Amino acid sequence: MMLTNADQLMHQAVATGCFPGAVLLVAKEKKIVHFEAYGRANLFNRTPMTRDTVFDLASLTKPLATTLALMELVRAGLIDLEQPLAVIISRFKKTEKAPIRIRDLLGHTAGLPAWRPYFRLLAKHDFSSRTGILKNLLTREPLTHSPGEKIVYSDLGFMILAWVVETIMDLPMGRYISQKIYRPMGLENLFFFPSLARIPEDIPCAATELCPWRGVLLNGIVHDDNAYTTVGLQGQAGLFGPVIAVFRLLSGLLDAYYQEGGSRFNHQLVRLFLTPQGRAGRALGFDVPSGINPACGNHFSAQTIGHLGFTGTSFWMDLDRSIIIILCTNRIHPSRHNNRIRMFRPQLHDAVMGHWVDCIG
């Protein structure tokens, strides 16, 4: 089935330079109704985008890896959402971060700043010492406000959550999430790749930025600057995969949301994590529609979760209507200063949902 209006918008977006290429997948009740590739994965060698192209998923790492790792630890009884950070990581004792709860970190209410350019310092040091230096930086980073006071979307909070996972399990978070969730679900094509390394050339990747400070075109190399300079604590970015793998993972969450025992995930925990929390209004680890002109447009129900990635990736899942829309683009290829996708996303989602809303209410 072809969603004609959405298809036309996608072709137009490529033609006008909104992004060089993209893959769009739309599903209703887990049945794929639109799955098409558009444009180029690489402008310089003119590699076409295909449905199998692997994307640097950027901040989709937060909900699809780090959050699911925490959900698994809660299911196993190894952690509690109300647990203070200092109980898990002793380095935070006697600091202002000691009372921050796991819930605060997942909900972006921990009081941490949004981002810091740690990579500038880390890049000056030997690779083997960088994770230790990053831990020192995170420990010393001053809070910008009291925990629980307000929402500030923070990469730093998810770096700390990766540290939490690695402290409890004594292995890298990427390996833990692969062993516990991706491999059991047959999702070996969702993966983290070592920093400072390149994904093998036989894996088709969407190129991202012609990076000014690294001096190379990033193709199969993690784009996020802080994730690039460290092996560990990549809780904010570092996940790669094709659109179909993202769809299968989200479908597993949707199964668990509706019924016990229908998925790899725990029904009650999925319900808890995907429900907006208190005054903050965010789901745990996931975003929800917000603002006057949300990225998901105006037709998703109130029971919707999703997330955006800096590289041009996104997903939105309407839990009431069982609709999933995944849009992965290489909008930062060749430059991160191309921000046209901000206006395009709502238009696309409205076009897709406009097709369905009359039919499903």
Characterise this structure.
Helices cover 34% and strands 14% of the residues. The longest helix has 20 residues, at 341-360. The chain is built from twelve helices and nine strands. The chain has helices spanning 4-15, 61-75, 85-88, 102-106, 119-122, 130-140, 155-169, 173-182, 225-228, 243-258, 267-273, 341-360; strands spanning 21-28, 31-42, 47-48, 54-56, 191-192, 239-242, 304-309, 313-318, 323-329. A hairpin with a 3-residue loop joins strand 7 and strand 8. The strands form two sheets. Strands 3-2-1-9-8-7 form a six-stranded antiparallel sheet. Strands 4-6-5 form a three-stranded antiparallel sheet. It is globular and about 60 Å long. By secondary structure, it is of the alpha+beta class. The model has no long low-confidence stretch (mean pLDDT 94).
**Main sheet?**
6 strands, antiparallel
The number of helical elements comes to: 12
Mean pLDDT: 94
Indicate the structural class. alpha+beta
Considering DSSP H and I runs of 4 or more, what fraction of the residues is helical? 25-40%
Can you write the helix and strand succession as a string? Answer: HEEEEHHHHHHHEHEHHEEEH
How far apart lie the N and C ends? Answer: 20 Å
Radius of gyration: 20 Å
Given as residue ranges, the uncertain stretches (5+ residues, pLDDT < 50) are: none
What is the general shape? globular
Strand order of the largest sheet: 3-2-1-9-8-7
Give the beta-strand count.
9
Strand residue content: 5-15%
